[in-house]
């Protein structure tokens, strides 16, 4: 003990400068953790500035109750319990009281009112409010609840189900605070954002986080391109604003991904660039009028890009052109690759879909395409997208026909189209080409989901009418040193798509 003590003291004296430095470092690090956890100091200032513009949305809906049948009273709505169960009488009395008519013969539960709560925000001092469509969908009454508790009835101006947005209007009883849209395109990954809303009906709540991702596609709709954030968003936050640190709305909080129903840091907001355009149209027309090009598009894979001499792979490949659409008279054709639309770059098909939808109906725009390796520009006047799709009539099964002679190429059994084959595979008379009657299971064609009944319309952008044409075009492409061959394929209904098959 006595020997160890001087040695310990000597060591401490020698290490004193290092210990002091570590202590200072620990203090600084310890001070920085809470600072990082609470985010920038400006969050409180932003929240104080915009909190009165955020409102709660209360809706009331009438739900029709189902009757269990004559003499059943309300028993159809009660839990199914074993006869004589001690809870049987309790539940029966409970549901009778809710039904109003009890167990009278022919009686049933009366229609009842249900309430739900969401969020919204004021964009105009005259009382316009933005929220989600799913917050007010099916509502009989809509009430806007201000931050000070004032309740005011609101009317529905219009909705857009494709982006899940709705516009409401109420008459303010006193001056209100309105907020402006910011530019969501300028958001950076890691940038701080603030969500304000009505989670779990608790009233105005402020949470903060960062932008985790932009242009996030989660297959929730035709135009989904969400801002992903780890700011806490829960049930009731739907329709509420996502602010940047300038107090501008950069998104509308719309949904979360969660196995529990609570926030796990995966919240998604519709970007303000989308919201502003939709709301502008709802204010003017009470509906959304989207541009329509009249084409079917697909991605440009590396194989397709190699076949079309496009470097690097980019754009939206036109697989089909609507005979009644704007693209047809403008000269757009299957096989064209759109790389720029109205001055905006098209990197992939979803870019083209969003740009076209956001372009004014009737506007004449320049469409830059690549056709057979060369760039061209076409002028297109956009039509209006129609929501209704024609219902295809069902076709009866056709009898088996005698199997004609076939030729093989790239794992495909190819046969000239005949009346019997059209009947067997339900192929319309307007579809021209060479029919696939079989596919080798281990071939690239099978991996690309070609199947019996598909029709090869073009090979290497040249029309084919028989199996010999197909083989001839394939051999020509091989001689050119290509690694794959591009085929235009139709289904029986005439819907086209491009498929690049490996030649190796």
Automatic annotation (TrEMBL):
Signal peptide: 1-37
Enzyme class, UniProt record, top EC level: hydrolase
Protein name: Probable periplasmic serine endoprotease DegP-like
Coiled-coil intervals, chain numbering: none
Localization per Swiss-Prot or TrEMBL: Periplasm
EC number: 3.4.21.107
Keyword Repeat: yes
Keyword field: Hydrolase, Periplasm, Protease, Repeat, Serine protease, Signal, Stress response
Region annotation (Disordered) ranges: 62-83
Source species of the chain: Tardiphaga alba
UniProt key word DNA-binding: no
Reaction it catalyzes: Acts on substrates that are at least partially unfolded. The cleavage site P1 residue is normally between a pair of hydrophobic residues, such as Val-|-Val
Higher taxonomy: Bacteria, Pseudomonadati, Pseudomonadota, Alphaproteobacteria, Hyphomicrobiales
Principal location: periplasm
Family, as annotated: Belongs to the peptidase S1C family.
Domain of life, source organism: Bacteria
Domain PDZ: 282-373, 392-492
């Amino acid at each position: 003990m006595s020997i160890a003590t001087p040695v310990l003291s000597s060591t401490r004296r020698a290490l004193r400068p290092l210990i002091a430095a570590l202590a200072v470092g620990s203090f600084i690090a310890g001070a920085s953790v809470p600072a990082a956890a609470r985010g920038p100091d400006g969050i409180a200032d932003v929240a104080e500035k915009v909190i009165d513009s955020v409102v709660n949305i209360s809706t009331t809906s009438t739900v029709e109750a189902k009757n269990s049948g004559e003499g059943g009273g309300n028993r159809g709505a009660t839990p199914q319990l074993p006869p004589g169960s001690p809870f049987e009488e309790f539940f029966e009395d409970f549901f009778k009281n809710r039904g109003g008519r009890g167990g009278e013969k022919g009686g049933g539960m009366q229609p009842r009112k249900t309430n739900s709560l969401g969020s919204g925000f004021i964009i105009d001092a005259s009382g316009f409010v933005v929220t989600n469509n799913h917050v007010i969908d099916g509502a009989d009454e809509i009430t806007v609840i201000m931050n000070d508790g004032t309740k005011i009835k609101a009317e529905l101006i219009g909705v857009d189900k494709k982006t899940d947005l709705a516009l409401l209007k109420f008459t303010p009883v006193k001056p209100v605070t309105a907020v402006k849209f910011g530019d969501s395109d300028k958001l950076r990954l890691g940038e701080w954002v603030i969500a304000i809303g009505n989670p779990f009906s608790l009233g105005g709540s402020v949470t903060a986080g960062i932008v985790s991702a932009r242009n996030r596609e989660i297959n929730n709709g035709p135009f989904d391109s969400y801002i992903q954030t780890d700011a806490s968003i829960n049930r009731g936050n739907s329709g509420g604003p996502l602010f940047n640190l300038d107090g501008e709305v950069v998104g509308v909080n719309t949904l979360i991904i969660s196995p529990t129903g609570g926030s796990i840091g995966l919240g998604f907001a519709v970007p303000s660039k989308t919201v502003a355009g939709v709301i502008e149209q709802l204010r003017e027309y009470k509906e959304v009028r989207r541009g329509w090009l009249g084409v079917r598009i697909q991605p440009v894979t590396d194989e397709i890009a190699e076949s079309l001499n496009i470097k690097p792979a980019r754009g939206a490949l036109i697989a089909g052109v609507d005979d009644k659409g704007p693209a047809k008279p403008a000269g757009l054709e299957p096989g064209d690759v759109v790389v720029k639309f109205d001055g905006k770059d098209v990197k992939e098909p979803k870019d083209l879909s969003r740009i076209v939808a956001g372009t004014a109906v009737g506007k004449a725009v320049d469409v830059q395409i690549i056709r057979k390796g060369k760039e061209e520009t076409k002028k297109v006047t956009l039509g209006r997208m129609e929501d209704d799709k024609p219902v295809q009539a069902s076709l009866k099964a056709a009898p088996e026909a005698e199997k004609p002679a076939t030729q093989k190429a790239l794992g495909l059994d190819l046969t000239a189209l005949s009346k019997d084959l059209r009947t067997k595979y339900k192929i319309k008379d307007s579809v021209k080409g060479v029919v696939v009657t079989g596919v080798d299971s281990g071939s690239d064609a099978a991996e690309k989901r070609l199947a019996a009944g598909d029709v090869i319309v073009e090979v290497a952008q040249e029309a084919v009418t028989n199996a010999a044409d197909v083989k001839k075009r394939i051999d020509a492409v091989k001689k050119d040193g290509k690694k794959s061959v591009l085929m235009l394929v139709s289904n029986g209904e005439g819907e086209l798509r491009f498929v690049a098959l490996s030649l190796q």
